[in-house]
Design goal:
heterodimer; A: 325 residues; alpha/beta; 39% helix; 17% strand; disordered C terminus; B: 272 residues; nine-stranded parallel β-sheet; 14% strand
């Protein structure tokens, strides 16, 4: 994949991955983001931090996760051997806790007492509430009221874990509004509060930091494939919402020319504006919002290839991995 | 710093005149297109008549992160009435044609400007008759390569209470027109009290730049406005205006009500 060569694995000093990324935020957040970036860099070189992260991954969240050979799915599809990287077996049921764990340990190091997060379906909220509960920190989760209604079970889980779930009523009452509301809380309470952003999203250092906390998925998967198949997979397929699990598994394979990386976006009811979640379907143009440059729904496009029918029933898209920043 | 004192400029002229008269400026904010552009076209001259010396015209954006709920809802109403960036520029030219000469600063976020086309934006804004630009989420580090300053569209820069002193100096060095000090950590919105450190922060800013300092975020009463005006060169009132627009909408009471609200604030600012 030629786009791979264009990928810059480490953001530059200003947090840009090539034309993407950066820090487009209100002035109040510039200094706190700089502090967060500096603390994260320090933590990554601190054996005590790395040790705590490793132990908590093993004993609390349940890493490594298995690589499972999906025998019946393989037979059903009648093509490639299909393996599943079982991030769903982690504590709280999703990869989200990789990031929540890392950020909450980092927040403690920084002396923050209060944890906030946004959540859409509720997985990131549950993961963050779990980590905050583990360390006895105050936790507030912002969630669109529409999402709260759709995901009532996760709302209950977060509340059982001691988090306060704040319903967001503005706009479409979903994830986008929840992110805005969490950002506002952070702008207001930045000295005491850490915002555990849930995906490889937002202003620098978040996309970089979230990737670093999730890249363990790909590192494990790579070693497990080498052990099981004595070679690398032909294709790695990941769903993309914000992109954190995708960059988490892709990252360890970015320099493998023969591994195709395939991200799948939600098709919804069709590829008409307003009916889908595919941001890279239509164009190379991108926008600036919530802290970084990225692609948006409803915009024209170019980087991704034509839609490919890939295996039965799945319509896939491919694009350069820097999209997930 | 970009000062072109040789050419007349509404913002520079305003602050030069006020300085001579030893008076402070009242800056008023509203969202263009809230509840619709026709109403904004009547509100802007009314605000000026009530005593506003400069008007920040919000270009509505779907995700106004630095704004509180009052201004977010203002943006939402403006977007629902079909307001776009070109529509706001058209409003500005209309106001200028109608001989409304109050200095106008466009107040928005980077994405609408980027979507419009950053290369042509500055020229279009100047042609329409706008005097300044305040982009809430474009720090100078990004602006340097995305939207370099230096023209007749004065680049208003925001300084926050969290901004370290060393950064204040580099921020104000990219500013023109005036410097906007955010009086508290948080988003826009009305507040009961003023932060205790305000005086200290404003005097540090005054030492850092010859540009006028305007203070905003949370000022809603004549008392607060008078206190801030005693410290700074200008006082910004925003959410309190947007809140009244929310309540009165297209009612014929809107304009007289806004004038009645703003006049005592203007008096407090101008007599400070």
């Amino acid at each position: 994949m030629s786009a791979k060569n264009a990928y810059l694995p480490v953001p530059d000093a200003s947090g840009h991955f090539g034309a993407y990324g950066g820090r487009y935020v209100p002035e109040t957040l510039v200094a706190p983001l700089e502090e967060l970036g500096a603390e994260f860099e320090k933590a990554q070189k601190d054996p005590a931090f790395l040790h705590e992260l490793k132990e908590m991954r093993r004993d609390f969240t349940g890493r490594p996760t298995p690589l499972y050979f999906a025998e019946r799915l393989t037979q059903h599809c009648g093509g490639a051997k299909i393996y599943l990287k079982r991030e769903d077996l982690l504590h709280t049921g999703a990869h989200k806790i990789n990031n929540a764990l890392g950020q909450v340990i980092l927040a403690r190091r920084m002396g923050k007492k209060r944890i906030i997060a946004e959540t859409g379906a509720g997985q990131h909220g549950v993961a963050t509430a779990t980590m905050a509960a583990r360390y006895g920190m105050e936790c507030i989760i912002y969630m669109g009221e529409e999402d709260m209604r759709r995901q009532a079970l996760n709302v209950t889980r977060m509340r059982l874990l001691g988090a306060k779930v704040v319903g967001v009523t503005a706009g479409q009452k979903t994830l986008k509004e929840a992110v805005n509301e969490a950002m506002r809380d952070w702008v207001t309470n930045v000295r005491t509060t850490h915002y555990v952003l849930g995906t490889a999203y937002g202003a620098h250092p978040y996309p970089y930091m979230v990737r670093e906390f999730h890249k363990v998925i790909g590192e494990e998967a790579r070693a497990q494939m080498m052990e099981r198949e004595e070679g690398l997979p032909d294709v790695i397929c990941a769903c993309v919402g914000g992109g954190s699990n995708a960059i988490g598994i892709f990252y360890a394979f970015l320099n493998d020319e023969n591994v195709r990386l395939v991200g799948v976006e939600a098709g919804g009811e069709g590829i008409k504006p307003g009916k889908h979640a595919a941001r890279v379907f239509r164009g190379e143009s991108w926008g600036y919002c919530r802290g970084r440059s990225r692609f948006y729904c409803r915009m024209r496009m170019g980087r991704s290839n034509r839609p490919t029918r890939y295996r039965r029933g799945w319509t896939m898209r491919r694009w350069g991995p820097n999209i997930v920043t | 710093m970009v000062l072109r004192m040789s050419l007349p400029h509404r913002i520079d002229d305003l602050f030069a005149r006020l300085k001579k008269e030893k008076r402070k400026a009242l800056v008023a904010y509203l969202v263009a297109g809230d509840p619709d552009l026709a109403t904004t076209a009547r509100l802007v001259p009314a605000l000026a008549e009530a005593g506003a010396d400069l008007i920040e015209l919000g270009i509505p954006f779907s995700d106004p992160l630095a704004d509180g709920i009052v201004n977010q809802l203002g943006c939402q109403r403006a977007l629902e009435s079909g307001t776009t960036l070109p529509g706001v520029l058209q409003l500005v030219s209309q106001l200028r044609k109608e001989k409304c000469n109050v200095p106008l600063v466009l107040f928005t976020y980077y994405n609408p400007v980027f979507a419009f086309g950053r290369e042509k934006f500055e020229a279009a804004a100047i042609r329409a008759g706008a005097d300044g630009l305040l982009l809430l989420d474009l720090p100078p580090e990004e602006a340097a390569h995305d939207l370099p300053a230096g023209g007749d569209l004065r680049r208003i820069v925001l300084v926050a209470p969290t901004t370290p002193e060393a950064r204040v100096r580099s921020l104000v060095s990219t500013a023109s027109g005036f410097v906007y000090y955010v009086s508290r950590e948080g988003v826009t919105g009305m507040q009961q009290t003023l932060p205790a450190t305000l005086g200290e922060k404003v005097s540090f800013l005054k030492k850092s730049t010859p540009l006028p300092i305007c203070v905003g975020f949370g000022i809603s009463t004549p008392e607060q406005a008078g206190q801030v005006a005693a410290l700074a060169d200008g006082v910004v009132v925003g959410s309190a205006i947007v809140d009244r627009i929310a309540k009165l909408g297209r009612s014929p009471q809107l304009i007289p009500e806004i004038i009645n609200f703003l006049r005592p604030i203007a008096q407090a600012v101008h007599s400070a």
